[in-house]
Amino acid sequence: MGKDLRSYLKQLNEAYPDSVKVVEQEVNPRFDITGHAAALAAKGEYPGLIFHNVKGASLACMSNLLTTYERIALFLDCDVQDIPRVFGEKILNSIPPTAVEPEEAPVKEVILTGEEADLNRLPIPIHNEQDGGPYLSAGVMVIRDPESEKINAGIYRHHIYGKDEMGVWFLGAHHGGLIYNKYKKAGKPAPVAIVLGHHPGFLMGAVSRIEGIGGEYEAAGALIGESLRLVKAETSDLMVPADAEIIIEGEILPDKEAPEGPFGEWPGHYLGGGSVPVIRVTGITHRKHAIFQDIVASSREHLVVGAVPRSGSIYRAVKSVVPSLKTVNVPHYARMHCYLSLNKERDADVKKAAFTALNTEQENLRHIVVVDEDINVFNGEEVAWAIGTRFDAERDLLTIPKWNGPGGLLPTNWDYHQDGSHTARMSSAVIVDATKPAPPVPYPARAVVPKEHVKQIQTNKLRSFNDEEKSRWF
């Protein structure tokens, strides 16, 4: 068998034994699954969660898994600050997938078709208070381009309408939507498969920024570190991941739409929705004792999963223009921001790097902060310190009017009216130059303890007050 969700869980448990918690008591899919994550987040805790007993469902549910950069760095085998570089380099060295026979595919252990292919069997959560119903939030939808025959994979939101129907919401130039429109124009249903539960490398590969249609299976293989194993679907000729936990097979109907939403998206607001195409379910296959994987919508996990692939793509693009780039962070707490650190060789490097980042991620980025290589862009306090000590708004702030939009998921891309309606508008972007002047111009030195002394400190020998010390000082 290939690497999968279970092999990653084993690796994670060995490296960070307390990183996944099991919930044994019965939970209601309506808010209880996300409620656990929210209650822990309020205390600053972000463990992965496995729910054994979800009311009305026969399978376990996992959520909150990819909530820290350390868990991403673990499967990429690198330090946190190296995630963008390693991610960006890996997806350039794609690994083609490999076909296997059905008897070799764990996802074929249970095969449900016809009336048995019932979405109610799955522990699908309702995530947030005003959501319009249950949603698949971690499903990777696979669809084949009818012209090139290339397979495209991506994460889309799927509103569950009933036991065998769900919506699919495409935003802007999503490749999945472009492919579906080709089937719709021809008046034909579009065969699809939705993959639930796999190695994080597969999930990250599916949301990677890859030029052109297709290539996600190859990118997933590169991130996993081995060829992705594929098997033929039951109700179509699509090739789907053999080591997945669950696969929902179906077809997007060319002549049927339904109201979708609302759904709490990654900016933390309710936008999007409207009338969307409908998927009719034709089959479900899954492992025995399968784990249904969910991403807690509009949460830290939602943001981390979206931010890491974008950081990798931005790193690769900026590095080609400004070779002195050190690293990139699209912070999970504000995915509209992007922090770039570089060893500035000339003052023009800042704008070149910032505009390349903006052009790589046009739909979402709004604020680019460029700092020197001595600033850890994964530490928000250090970035704020750089802005406070190396940035002068009159000289170092560049505003780009009408850069982003119109419309989309960012609330500032809309004008709001008293009658409750809203109309799409363009919004601006800014570049903040928080770097020192380029050499040979001097700048005051930063006050730091010498690194060689810091490395010698043995923090494992620290202890709490003993009784004698308490009596002396308390």
What characteristics describe this protein?
474 residues, alpha+beta, 7-stranded antiparallel sheet, 5-stranded mixed sheet, 23 strands
Descriptive overview:
The protein has 13 helices and 23 strands. The chain is an alpha+beta fold and 474 residues long. The strands form six sheets. Strands 5, 7, 8, 10, 11, 14 and 15 form a seven-stranded antiparallel β-sheet that branches. A hairpin with a 6-residue loop joins strand 12 and strand 13. Helix 4 packs across helix 8. It is globular, with a radius of gyration of 24 Å. The model has no long low-confidence stretch (mean pLDDT 88).
Topology:
Blueprint (H helix, E strand, L loop, with lengths): L4 H11 L4 E4 L8 H10 L6 E4 L8 E4 L5 H8 L6 H8 L7 E2 L10 E4 L21 E2 L3 E5 L6 E5 L2 E2 L5 E3 L7 H12 L3 E7 L3 H7 L9 H9 L4 E4 L6 E3 L4 E15 L13 E13 L4 E3 L6 H22 L3 E5 L7 E6 L5 H13 L6 E6 L7 H11 L2 H4 E8 L9 E3 L5 E3 L2 E8 L16 H6 L10 H7 L1
Parallel strand pairs: 1-2, 3-16, 4-12, 18-19, 19-23
Antiparallel strand pairs: 2-3, 5-15, 6-9, 7-8, 7-11, 10-15, 11-14, 12-13, 14-15, 17-18, 20-23, 21-22
Helix pairs in contact: 4-8, 6-7, 8-9
